[in-house]
Specification:
Two copies of one chain form a homodimer. The first copy, chain A, has twelve helices and 13 strands. Chain A is of the alpha/beta class. The first copy, chain A, has two domains: 108 residues, Alpha-Beta Complex (Aspartate Aminotransferase, domain 1), CATH 3.90.1150.10; 188 residues, Aspartate Aminotransferase, domain 2 (3-Layer(aba) Sandwich). Chains A and B meet through helix 2, helix 4 and helix 9 of A and helix 2, helix 4 and helix 9 of B.
Amino acid sequence: MLEHGGRLARAAAHYGIPRDRWLDLSTGVSPHAWPVPAIPAEAWHRLPEDEDDLLDAARAYYGCEHLLPVAGTQAAIQALPRLRPRSRVGVLAPGYAEHAHAWREAGHDVTLLPMEALVARAGEFDVVVFISPNNPTGERVPGAFLQHRSRARALEQKPDWVVVDEAFGDTRADAFLQPRDGMILLRSVGKFFGMAGARAGFVAAWPGLLDALREQLGPWALSGPTRYAVARALCDTAWQDAMRRRLKQESTWLGSTLERAGLKPAGGTDLFQYCPHPDAAGLFEALARRGVLVRLFNEPSALRFGLPPDDVSHGHLASVLAEILP
Amino acid sequence: MLEHGGRLARAAAHYGIPRDRWLDLSTGVSPHAWPVPAIPAEAWHRLPEDEDDLLDAARAYYGCEHLLPVAGTQAAIQALPRLRPRSRVGVLAPGYAEHAHAWREAGHDVTLLPMEALVARAGEFDVVVFISPNNPTGERVPGAFLQHRSRARALEQKPDWVVVDEAFGDTRADAFLQPRDGMILLRSVGKFFGMAGARAGFVAAWPGLLDALREQLGPWALSGPTRYAVARALCDTAWQDAMRRRLKQESTWLGSTLERAGLKPAGGTDLFQYCPHPDAAGLFEALARRGVLVRLFNEPSALRFGLPPDDVSHGHLASVLAEILP
């Protein structure tokens, strides 16, 4: 398992700054969480039932029919490699590292490639794995590739599976891909809805794949309270529309602030900005000493900034950046 | 996957009785749920962290050090068989059917045996799986077997693993087993605390096994709200003590009612009573037509009755039994 969680706790201990004094921009989770209402006692008490209103809500939200609720994208990332015999797998890099880790752990032959090379060499692999928009770079899988690939697959050409992790796709609702033959799409409720604690996501794919995945993951993958809360969040289109506008404004503002400080983003989404910099490690350290936690990437050397939760913290980020990048 | 859930919904449709008119005694989940307080917004918002107070609460409650939180006993039942090469596995029967199913699905050679035979022939297997107290019979794994087995294992004799599912063990707090070499104990928060919707349980075993299981299950197995609620439930010793007394009284009362109706229980726990009967299927049908849902077992022919939630429903059960077993 890759190292996860507790980053803020460790930073607090390492830099001697109390946890509640940090500006934590280290995640891509929206700082503006959907307001979860009180949970009915029955949702805690009874076994969760597949026949509740969660799946209908998800079908309406994602605009597709065949969906499987999973305990976060992570559950699907770990389960998919167990559904195939040893395969040649091309995985986007840099990108969310759990994909490559899970395919390797399951005994597959994994090749890491940047977007352009992965698209060009897709036919060499049994499985290709994209993250789109990519975390942390913000790149998207080219539509032309997906169309070409549909034609190629009709001739039974490789790749057999195309996995696309759309965990950060919600900020452009019309940009969700549609599952076609051999496409497996992963969606997360954690990021856009600011509900990372709920552990909820969905897989969109063909029915046979979803059956195999359900068998692998077992019954009751989501808790009753999570099913209740997520079904309501997915139906709250007024909140979703307003939040998309708000996140677009705030991410644009964050991009401007970073650019003014000399850290022009090379990419990102409406939930984070991605800033390559030759001394990213030094900047990370300087920010952390001032109580600002961001995400550091080493290959290539870059920082990822999540959205500040409010104007005050945005202003604080700007002044800290001015201090360390005068 | 075995068929699960939706039993009440299907019964409502099949018997033409609205869902809210049923007396549902078909589960072993306590009808008296621990009262979950309001969940802090942060528990929904942030990724769950292993460093919260859940594990300390569980260590105090179960009285043992090495524990892994899992998304319900079910998650452990499915994951354990994936941690071994093909093995000979003896599984208690009748008993919770997911155990045998999970070991078979993972390619192991499964033999189903009743308690006495499983104890006597344990040395023939690589793994033996008990449910103690057993669901639905209420039988417990003999202490003498576990002691003998500890000595045998010092000589590296089989079985290699002894799995004991103690999902219904909480009503006698002092009866939880202690994990010793090669013992894997499964505990559930769903039954005694009446929190089946939370999807929470724990595995007690040696550290190496827990590490392998954690790797198999991945990070964030429990949602943030579940971690918060379960940590508090496990610490609420006043509620637990009072509830153990209450469940003991109510299950004794249920046993008397069943015995007076000619259905003397052959076993059970403080959360259900187990009644073998040659025409269990006919009784199930007669109860269901009157809006009382119980659990039917075919081999051997038997019914399992959960606790009625209150005096009125207990009286209703008694009068329905008097009607169909005059």
